[in-house]
Structures are given as C-alpha cells and as structure tokens.
Amino acid sequence: MIKNKKTLAISSLVLSAIFFGGTFIVVKNLLDDFSPINIVFLRYAVATILFLFSGGIPTKKTVKPGLLMGVFLWVGYVTQTQGLLTTSTINSGVVTGFYIVLTPIFSKIINKTSLSGKSYLFSLTGFLGIFLIASNSYDQLFGNLFTLICATGYALHIVMVERYIKNQNISQLMFVQSLIGTLLCVPFLNLEQFSFKIQYVMPILFLGFVVNFAAFYLQLYGQKIINASTAALLLSLEAIFALIIGILYVGEVLNITNWAGVFLVLLSIFLVIKE
C-alpha cells in the first residue's frame, strides 16, 4: 500500500512537471502583447476562482502557509516571466532547474530535514546536467539572472509545501496561495493591455487551469508523500519537457554538450527514484 502511494506520488510530480514544461512557450508568445505582471495576474486569477470552487472558503490554519507559499511562488513567477523577455524558452526552463540544488539546502536549514550524502550528490548531478543544457546561451545573461532569482523562489516554495502540506486541504491552501499572487500583482498592472481578443483565451486558460490549478494540485499531492529534495528532482523534468517543446515547436537546436546535460538530469532522477 505504501509503495503504491509512493508510485502515485511520483507519477503526480512527473505529470506536474510535464504541465510546467509546457508553460514557457505559451508565456513567451503572450509576452508579445502582455507585460510579465499582467500574464502572472491572469493565470493566478483563473486559478483562484477554480480553487475556491473546488475547496470552498479556507480555514484559518491555511492562511499562514498559503501566504508564505504565495509570496515565494509569486517571486518565482514574476522573475521567470520577466526573464523570458531576454532569454530562450529552453534556457529559461533549464536555468529555473537550479532549484534542484537549492531545495535540499533550504529544506535542511528551514525544515531541519536529514538528508543523505546521496541526496546532495543526485541534486548536484542534476544541476550539472542543467548547466550543460544551458551552456550555449551565455549571451542571455540578463534573462538568466532573473531566472536564477526565480529558481530561489521556487525552491523556497517547495520547502514551504514540505513544511505545511501534511495535514492541509490542498484546494484551500492553493486558494490562499493563488489569491496572494493575484493581489501582489494588482499595484503593477498595466490596465491598457487588457482587451478581449479570442486568441488570448486559450493560452490564459491553459496557464490558469492546466498549470496553476492542475499542475500545482498534483505537485502538492505528490509532496504529501515525497520529500522536498526528491520532489525538486522530479519537477526538474520540467526543463526536459521545455527543451523538447523548444526543439519541436520553436526550432531551437542542441549540441552534444546539451544532450549530455539531458542525460545527466535523467540519470539523477532515475537514481533518486531507484533509491
């Protein structure tokens, strides 16, 4: 029974990573017509409504965890979206993956988790792979700096989930997280950009429903069983899926070094699951 639960949790995190990996190209296209803050606001607003309907009014115990998760995730979203203005979809996906190194460190400091040497080794192997994937994109340094801040925000978000998720209602927790993200965007909105055009509907619904609602629900479900460092490694598959989408739909090209990076990321994930 325990093994089945772990398998289901791993599957949830991998599926979540697939959804996250599809984010980059959609956001990149929307940046032609929307500011980063406006995109983040719209996807949060959709998710807020969906989580309210699925979970109802949140209880008092969800407020503090949801607030912390919401702030860190908002920082991650805004800086990642800003970074996409000056970096490629592939590079954004893989630099974001730096959180696989930061997560076990923050987990140990904040949650006092006990991690084996192997956990750190797997994380470092995964990050080396991510570094190799991004190694041909040094000309995109400015976007990468924003994306590194994003990685920090995502790592802290994963650690906050690990800290608070065990006895929480996922939908209620996600409602608070999404509401905080929506409200943080409001002072920075560019209202002149808001106009109804049919071509915006599907991308916004994809980001709000598939990513901010479904993918995060799957992530939190998986983290009820899987620790933060392992969850971060599984979620780093997001970079691989972003890479595949970048190759198939944007025509971005990888060299042999980049493919070696892909191999190392997949190897690190295989080793941690095998453990």
Question: What does this molecule look like?
Answer:
The chain is mainly alpha-helical. The protein has one domain. Helices cover 78% and strands 0% of the residues. The chain has 13 helices and no strands.
Span of the ends, CA to CA:
18 Å
- Average predicted local confidence, pLDDT: 84
Q: Name the structural class.
A: mainly alpha
Q: Uncertain spans, ≥5 residues at pLDDT below 50? A: none
Count of individual helical segments: 13
Shape: globular
Q: Summarize the helix and strand pattern as letters.
A: HHHHHHHHHHHHH
Helix content: over 70%
Record field, number of beta strands: 0
Largest sheet: none
Number of domains: 1
Q: Supply Rg.
A: 18 Å
Strand content: under 5%
Question: Which descriptors would you attach to this protein?
Answer:
275 residues; 13 helices; 78% helix; globular
